[in-house]
Amino acid sequence: MSNSERPNQLFRNLNAKIASIPMVLTALVVFVGGTAWTVLYSFTNSKLLPRLNFVGLDQYYRLWATPRWLISIENLLIYGVISLVFSLVIGFVLAALLDQKIRFEDTFRTIFLYPFALSFIVTGLVWQWLLNPDFGIQRVVRDLGWTSFSFDPLYNSSIVIYGISIAALWQGTGLIMCLMLAGLRGIDEDIWKAARVDGIPMWKTYLFIVIPMMRPVFITTLVIIAAGIVKVYDLVVAQTSGGPGIASEVPAKYVYDYMFFAQNLGQGFAASTMMLLSVMIVIVPWAYLEFGGRRRG
Amino acid sequence: MRYKFLTAAFAATVALNFAGPAAATDLEVTHWWTSGGEAAAVAELAKAFDATGNHWVDGAIAGSGGTARPIMISRITGGDPMGATQFNHGRQAEELVQAGLMRDLTDIATKDKWTEIVRPKSLLDSCTIDGKIYCVPVNIHSWQWLWLSNEAFQKAGLPVPKDWNEFVADAPALEKAGIIPLAVGGQAWQASGAFDVLMAATGGTDTFLKVYKDKDAAFAAGPEIAKVFKAADDARKMAKNTNVQDWNQATNLVITGKAAGQIMGDWAQGEFQVAGKTAGKDYTCLPGLGLNEVIATGGDAFYFPLLKDEAKTKAQAVLAETLLDPKTQVAFNLKKGSLPVRGDVDLNAANDCMKKGLAILAKGAVMPWTDQLLSQDSQKQKEDLFSEFFAKPDMTVEEAQKRFAAIIASAD
Are B40 and B135 members of one domain? Predict the structure, then answer.
């Protein structure tokens, strides 16, 4: 863009700009304003009602000394690594398989994407039943004759978070597959031809040529998955409500429980500020890479 | 635009209201009584209130107190108060009162002499903040009951135990017969409540008060409480095969004889009644686990948010009087399975277990419960600890006690 057009910039597309004022205001007041308010009150000892009675970092000290919060963080890390790695890998492999110009591609795509149409609550309930030892997979296998078979991840404290991850993967992988498929379709056909002429095996072409070319798609996918990880809440509520004991608690549930059940807003705000911080750690480098990079280029 | 439309709509409804008969005032009452027996009990309250010429608008919120309270509180703090709302009397609404959002009922209370009719007196004390009365207690629910399935003990070839210690001794034989000795559901408040009951029963009332009322952290870390944790450890071992979540599912295990016993409040009685079981024949109830026959005076109460509308304010006063009316008290509490808040009513229709409770109440053997003594914040921390303790067999008693003492030290 040349500089001579600058003065007109403000008034170009005036209608569109006026139309977007409500959204700009919403973003400023609700998102930025609400965030600032939350961070501010996380330094107070607000209980049921917000009060400006500052106690410094007390809420944060308490937060990091609470076993339940530590378990929540640990669960989030495990859940995060699993959903990040597996949804990327499975999503990409499915997309690559679908990209082989197979028959009934539309049908398969629909089947794989279908779980994404379900909410986390429904997904959670379905998998709660499937993983229930008395009616689910364990029961079916035992009825088939393998009576010592045991598969009850939701009732075992040490593996419950993996049981939850299974449901999350089932629900979310379809979307990742579609994004990847779109990325694969964006690769020029000539590149494949050139690779074939050079006699490069297919898996090598994918790994060393296609995937590096799909960098923007991967980054977008990464952000979508990461945002989904941090805010996971309804899936846990529907599957285990944090149990057995507190073995499958997650940070978002801690925030909700302490704000509304325990009537301790300060503690809930401190926890949500920590969550915001972790989102920032993901978003800021991404924004820098995406937008900063483009401007330079 | 939308705002204007809403205003117009409101104006229209207001105009319509004035056009209608002036005497009948609609009063919205929110509560979380949604199970079969509870809904029948609420219907009694609504009937009594409608009989005064007003209209009870039922605002039931499903999903138990934990779900309902945040909704009620946000409506009151958000400037859209209902006519009246249920809370457990004690400290749940404390801050709402302090913020001046609740109506002071002292004048009605003095006029109707509540201090004389409400029994035990501690009920009214939990409604009183800074010398003013803010709520109407409607019933007494106590936690300290052990419900035993006679059928389960018969199957294991044992006599029905008379107290907690005998019950613990029976556990191996019950397990051998394929029966879960103790049913504890997965919801956090169940484990936490069972621990409090064990403390009141095995430690005694003074121990209980020293921990929860005086919040003596050194005492909570001491040998007296270590004994309570030992009992909780027994309970944990006895409950390890319970694979249910909700309290009524756990009660159902006892009703069907799959589990031998359950520590649960007297609201469990409604489940036995619905299942057509008879107290004494099919099931046995031991108040105070048979060790310390004292009952806690928790329960439900109605609070009245401060309203601007004069007609509704008047209707609130009528509702407050209706709730304490002897006839309403009897009708409501019989359906609810709880004890009435006044001693001068006749409860002939009460069953065996309720009569046991009434007798203890008449003796004056009552104590306050954690709803009255601890803030919701401390309660939640306690729930987190005990749900972990009951679900994690490798968590040691010492570690749990150390964390318990830390919660008591910071409790308010």
Answer: yes
- Residue B85 sits in the same domain as residue B186: no
pLDDT at A6: 58
Question: Among residues of chain B, what percentage have pLDDT more than 90?
Answer: 46
pLDDT in tens, B319-377: 999 999 988 998 888 888 788 888 787 777 777 888 888 889 888 888 888 888 898 89
A258, B377: Cβ pair inside 8 Å? Answer: yes
Q: Is the omega angle on the peptide bond into residue A244 within 30 degrees of 0, that is, cis?
A: yes
Query: Please, which pLDDT band fits residue B396 given cuts at 50, 70 and 90?
Result: very high
Over the stretch B43-86, which tens digit does the pLDDT of each residue have? 999 999 999 989 999 999 887 777 888 889 989 988 899 999 99
pLDDT score of A3 more than 80: no
Provide the domain count of chain B.
2
Give the DSSP letter string of A237-269.
Answer: HHHTTT-STTTT--HHHHHHIIIIIS--HHHHH
Taking CA–CA distances from A48, the nearest residue in chain B reads B95
Instruction: Give the integer Cα–Cα distance in Å for A136 and A293.
Output: 50
Q: Which of A133, A157, A263 sits opposite B376 (nearest CB)?
A: A263
Pair (B160, B200) in one structural domain: yes
The Cα angle at residue B266 between residues B262 and B269, in degrees rounded to 5? 80
CA contacts within 13 A on the Cβ side of A34: 8
Interface test with A, best of B67, B180, B242, B388 (most A CBs within 10 A): B388
Domain limits for position B404 = 145-296+374-409
Assess whether B350 and B310 both reside in one domain: yes
Average pLDDT on B228-244 reads 91
CA of A12, closest CA in chain B: separation in Å?
27
Put simply, the answer to whether A155 touches B243 (Cβ < 8 Å) is: yes
Give the CATH number, domain containing residue B388. Answer: 3.40.190.10
The answer as to whether B8 is a domain residue is no
B136-161 CB burial, b ≥16 within 10 A, e <16: bbbbbbbbbbbbbbbbbbeebebebb
- B289 and B302 in a single domain? The answer is no
More confident residue, B121 or B75: B75
Check: CB of residue B332 under 8 Å from CB of residue B107.
no
B20 pLDDT higher than 50: no
- What does the pLDDT read at residue A7? 58
The mean per-residue pLDDT over the stretch A198-206 comes to 89
Report the DSSP beta bridge partners of residue B146: B263, B286
Residue A279 banded pLDDT, cuts 50, 70, 90: confident
Q: Under DSSP, is residue A1 helix (H, G, I), strand (E, B) or coil?
A: coil
Q: Please indicate whether, in this complex, the C-beta atoms of B376 and A243 are within 8 angstroms of each other.
A: no
Radius of gyration of chain A (CA): 24
**Considering the domain boundaries, does residue B5 fall inside one?**
no
Q: Is the dihedral of CA B312, B315, B316, B319 positive or negative?
A: negative
Q: What's A58-296's CATH class?
A: mainly alpha
Q: What is the ipTM of this complex?
A: 0.78
pTM of structure: 0.82
Q: How far B187 CA sits from the closest chain A CA (Å)?
A: 8
Q: Which of A261, A267, A269 to mutate to test the interface with B (most CBs of B within 10 A)?
A: A261
Closest CA to B381 of A65, A38, A77, A274: A65
B193, pLDDT greater than 90: yes
Q: If you count residue pairs, one on A and one on B, with CB atoms under 8 Å apart, how many are there?
A: 76
Same domain? For B315 and B227 the reply is no
Chain A neighbors of B375, CB-CB under 8 A: 47, 263
Residue B20 falls inside a structural domain: no
In a domain, B62, yes or no: yes
Pair (B88, B195) in one structural domain: no
User: Which pLDDT score is estimated for A294?
Assistant: 55
* Chain B CB contacts of A260 below 8 Å: 69-70
The reply to whether B136 and B281 lie within a common domain is: no
